[in-house]
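Hello K.,

You asked for the raw outputs rather than the summary table, so here they are, unedited. I folded two proteins back to back in the same session to keep the settings identical. This is the first:
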Amino acid sequence: MSLLTVRVFPNLTEANLFKLRLESEGVDCYLFDENIAGMDITYDVAIGGIKAKVNSADTERVKEILKMLEAEQKEKDIFIKCPVCESTEHYKNIISTKGWWAIIWAFLGVGRQTQNYKCKECGNEFV
């Protein structure tokens, strides 16, 4: 049995939610480096995130599930609007670049705990 990495997550919560979703669809999912990342919030950066892996035989089923999850997320994202221009086109999960403190917080992993967005139209960063 060979395992393939299908997603990499910045935190344990997102990784476990993804694992539960795959398992509810009948696909066995294994998380790698979850214990190391769970010990300290900064370790996930050092190890490259928490890896979700599945059996290579389940590849086609996982592709279908990922497309379904992407469609669900896209449907949710249309309700998020930029507070400046009210555009629904945005980047998500960005690390803020406003001010030099943001770079330090991003390096320490503190800024990654919130859902950050950046508008594609006007460039405004918002939470």
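The second followed immediately with the same parameters:
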Amino acid sequence: MPKSGIYSKFSLVNRTAFCIPIYVGKAVPKGWRQARQTSSNKSKGYELNNRLRQHSRSISLGEGLELSDFFCRFIILEDKESDLIGTVEAALIRKYQPIWNTLIDGFGNHDPGKGRYEQAKSDWDVCHPGRAWADKCQGIHSDKNQLYKSIEEFLENLDQENV
């Protein structure tokens, strides 16, 4: 976790074990939303690898972040167990309340695409500018200083026995 900057407290809390995640996400098989099964063994692992690459790129582009400061843990659910992906993600978010899922939402966002740039830039993109597609979003977004203040308050309230 970041050793300096606004998220440095995560480094202290997670110094001996990764007990508080900054983000929880999912990578789902192609056709998952429509409940279609993919039979190709060739595609197994592609979704996870692709999603991790997307997240790595977002961190690398994000202002004030260093990719080398981040670690990743994941679980792979295959076949029928893949039906639990959304449930497991929701349970982990509910349990850990990761800051990039709750307070500073938008890290896992994709480019909304042509014709949808009237929406606001995500809070994550306000705090960590750098994704070119996010700069195209023209809606009224949150105030960066207020978001940073919220981050500082969140980190102050981290469980003191973990520090």
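Residues 58 and 131 are 7 Å apart (CA to CA).

Happy to rerun anything if the numbers look odd on your end.

Regards,
P.
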